[in-house]
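Progress against Task 2.4 (sequence-to-structure conversion) is shown through the following example record, which the project officer requested during the mid-term review.
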Amino acid sequence: MQVTFVATIAVGAPIVALLSVPVDLPSWGARVEFAIRVGAVIWIITALSVFLYAKRQQK
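Structure tokens generated for the chain above:
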């Protein structure tokens, strides 16, 4: 779980920042909502990737 958290922060933060550049985010609420929506997708992808990697390494 710690690997998932660190990988999500290390990879996800720059992705969220880059994806937010072309989007109009006029308020802090809009920025938070955008970060949560994009971050959730990144978290799921990272978690599934780490899970599948760990499962494959156990065999």
